[in-house]
């Protein structure tokens, strides 16, 4: 079975169980925290390691997360370890958060600009996106700064990219001039 299929099934099961127990928000918060923790290389390697045994991983999970995560989340992590599926946890967390956003009708929009945007501008972008009906009912904006854009912005959401950056426009002009077949004739 593919990693994506495994991640999707476990994520769906966790979401359904969290909904049944009215713990969806608590479990989602735990999954967001876990995703942040996965940026720690040691934790990531521990999850992926075939050398560290299941019992040792269960002990580590218990030490790290007991009392900090909801009981449902802790039980889920324990089940993954027992079924020797903990190596799929990074993919399961990513899929869980994606399924949660679909369930809650949240679109994540990445706005890349050359300089930092203020809250007023971000709010205006959010309002325009909601007004356009191109996004879902709720919009979550992630702001990224890339000085190489020179100016303008790039919007990314739902596998779509709207590039209104100055660097993109300059690249377009370069291609036009490069492909220009006009040759000037200078007379002496």
Structural class: alpha+beta
Unreliable spans:
none
Number of strands: 4
- State the distance separating the first and last CA atoms: 75 Å
What's the SSE blueprint?
Elements (H helix, E strand, L loop, with lengths): L2 H18 L3 H14 L3 H8 L5 H12 L5 H12 L6 H15 L2 E8 L5 H14 L5 E8 L6 E6 L2 E6 H14 L9
Parallel strand pairs: 1-2
Antiparallel strand pairs: 1-3, 3-4
Overview in brief:
It contains eight helices and four strands, in the order ααααααβαβββα. The protein has helices spanning about 5-20, 25-35, 40-50, 55-65, 70-80, 90-105, 120-130, 165-180; strands at about 105-115, 140-145, 150-155, 160-165.
Report on this structure.
The protein is built from 8 helices and 4 strands, in the order ααααααβαβββα. The chain starts with a helix and ends in a 9-residue tail after the last helix.
Q: Which key phrases capture this entry?
A:
188 residues; alpha+beta; 4-stranded mixed β-sheet; elongated
